[in-house]
Amino acid sequence: MITSVIFLILLYRWACPCILQGRCVPGSHALGTLYFSLRENPLHTSCKLQYKFIFLSLLFSSLAWNNLNAQKWNLNSHFQKAIQKFAEDTVLFNASVSVTVLENSTGAIVGSYDSYRTLIPASSSKLFSVGAMLKQAGPNFRYQTPFVLIGQTNEDRIFQGHLIVKPSSDPSFCSPHQSGAMSFSQLVDTLVKRLDELGIKKIQGQILVEDEFIQDVPENPEWLYYDLGNYYGSGCYSLNFLENTCWISLQEQTRSGRVCDIISVYPPMLKDQFCSEVISTAEPTQEDIYVLGSNLANYSKVMGSIQCCGSDTLNLKAAMSNPPSVFAEMLIAELKSRSKFERMPGVKFKKQEQTLFTYQSVPLIDLSERALKKSVNLYCESFLHQFGFLRSENTSRSSALKELEQFWSKEGIDTRGLRLEDGSGLSPKTKCSSFQLVQVLQNFTKTKLKDDFVSCLPNVSEEGPLAGSLSSCKKCKNRYRLKSGSMESVRSFSGYIMDGNKPKYSISLIVNHYDCSSDKIRKLIAQLLINML
Q1: CB contact at 8 A, 129 and 404
Q2: Number of Cα atoms under 13 Å in the Cβ half of residue 342
Q3: Do 44 and 23 meet the contact criterion of CB atoms below 8 Å apart?
Q4: Signed CA dihedral, 337, 343, 348, 349: sign only
Q5: What is the distance between the alpha carbons of residues 342 and 161, in angstroms, rounded to a whole number?
Q6: CA–CA distance, 408 with 404 (Å, rounded to integer)
Q7: Contact status, residue 167 vs residue 238, Cβ threshold 8 Å
């Protein structure tokens, strides 16, 4: 602001001689009148250029002034001192840091450090996709997955035709983790009950799962290859099943240097798709066990090492390959076991359609809570595709991402430098600033969704990576509701500083390229949060 004022004074000193010499007559002080005067009055060429320069300068200065007024800066010494101490810690000497604290009622920035620097936010970027979906669809939105019978029932009460599943990418379909979701066994029971109610003894035909809703490659091309085989890197399909996760059990070995064999996989038909290269070792190991593969691979490798020696089993989760096919196989097996299905691919039937049952998800607000509190990537990728469909009836990833950025721009978010490559933040190419995240957070405090949205964020004094450091801090109890984000050399936390049940401040911090241990950066961030109270 001071720079703009000095610039205008110097501009005035430069332009005044032309005006005082009488070569041109100044018009009104209003910019519009000045512009009109320039068009209507024949002026000396050099003077006219000077007037145009004055006009443009005043115009841009006016815009800058309005922008400054819209983004109030009222740096509170308490917040600022804590942030400055954090950012200048020698541990972060080589790191990139962006921190912003905004007072929600006034919009004033009360603490900051390089607020506009775009960095990798990791899972903090879930706030963009979850927030947009909640605003677009509403907290009571439910995914629908109809089960449709196409064919007819003969006189022997045999339905001749197909059972068609028409999914809409519900991320919680038959999820064992989403509270309130109908389980797979409950779904089978419901379908059998509905067949009985319709007087159908058996289906003769096929069970088919449509795949038209999402036609993108399930796994985002911008994700890292070594993430794809792990449960958190599972792709998003038209039909997601069991959160696209399978469970693998490995047998420990009693001697060092031996391969730990896979003893079971659920769903069981996927066992042949995994091979173990996990080696037992006599020495303590910090190496994680991970899965290397993708949906396009014929099989996936389980990699890493386990300290021997014992007879226990180790359980881990992996990405499920082709969830629609797995679901169809499991459903066929269950219906066959109850004498309710007979596979007949070539059966001839008249195409009469009726809905057998429509599977509904729990409300979107409940899905959003799991997406943010447990940081489930699949949910946010599904939200992205569904958001694109609701906005333009186009579920393609690229179209939905454009819609997402345009949505937040229209909501008043400064999207300069914002780059969204996915809905979950798993891509290291996704970038934003801490200022953009606090803008999204403050945006929700002005809506009826405020309380619902706040409840979706983790209470970091009780859960998540900071709980160990903050649980013993009395003044921190119930004060922070923050979404965390992490990947290699990336840590972020974004959410609210609470005053009772009220989100008084929006806060976001992003740290990239640090070279200390995960434990060290976690403790440093926890200390920052303590110092700000």
Answers
A1: yes
A2: 12
A3: yes
A4: positive
A5: 11
A6: 6
A7: yes
Q: What number of other Cβ atoms are within 10 A of residue 292's Cβ?
A: 18
Alpha-helical runs (H) found in 198-249: 225-228
Helices (H) and strands (E) in the chain, counts: 15, 16
Residue written as token pair 């979701």: 181
- pTM, two decimals, is 0.85
Contacts of 331 (CB under 8 A, 6+ apart): 188, 191, 207
DSSP 183: P
> Which amino acid is it at 487?
M
Distance CA 9, CA 4 (A): 9
Give the tokens for residue 495. Answer: 């959410």
Contact 422, 430 (CB under 8 A): yes
Closest by Cα among 166, 144, 222, 169 to 395: 169
Written as tens digits, the pLDDT of the chain (533 aa) is 444 544 444 444 444 444 333 333 333 333 443 333 444 444 444 444 454 554 445 444 444 444 444 456 667 679 999 999 999 999 999 999 999 999 999 999 999 999 999 999 999 999 999 999 999 999 999 999 999 999 999 999 999 999 999 999 999 999 999 999 999 999 999 999 999 999 999 999 999 999 999 999 999 999 999 999 999 999 999 999 999 999 999 998 888 889 999 999 999 999 999 999 999 888 777 667 999 998 878 889 999 988 877 678 889 999 999 999 999 999 999 999 999 999 988 777 777 899 999 999 999 999 999 999 999 999 999 999 999 999 999 999 999 999 999 999 999 999 999 999 999 999 999 999 999 999 999 999 999 999 999 999 999 999 999 999 998 999 999 999 999 999 999 999 999 999 999 999 999 999 999 999 999 999 999 999 999 99
Q: What are phi and psi of 392, to 5 degrees?
A: -140, 10
Which two three-digit tokens encode residue 475? Answer: 């003044």
Contact indicator for 245, 320 with CB cutoff of 8 Å: yes
Place of tokens 């000497």: 93
CB 196 within 8 A of CB 339: no
Token pair 């489930």 in the structure block, residue: 376
Residue 25 class from Cβ within 10 Å (0-12 exposed, 13-18 middle, 19+ buried)? exposed
Rounded Cα distance, 221 and 51, in Å? 53
Q: Which two tokens stand for residue 313?
A: 């089993």
Maximum Cα interatomic distance, the chain, rounded to a whole number of Å: 106
Our measurement of the distance from residue 312's CA atom to the centroid of its chain's CA atoms, rounded to an integer in Å, reads: 36
The number of residues in the chain equals 533
Exposure class string for 165-200: b at 16+ Cβ within 10 A, else e: bbbbbbbbbbbeebeebbebeebbeebbeebeeeeb
- Cβ count near 23 (within 10 Å): 14
Cα(156)–Cα(106) distance, rounded to whole angstroms?
72
DSSP 3-state of 108 = coil
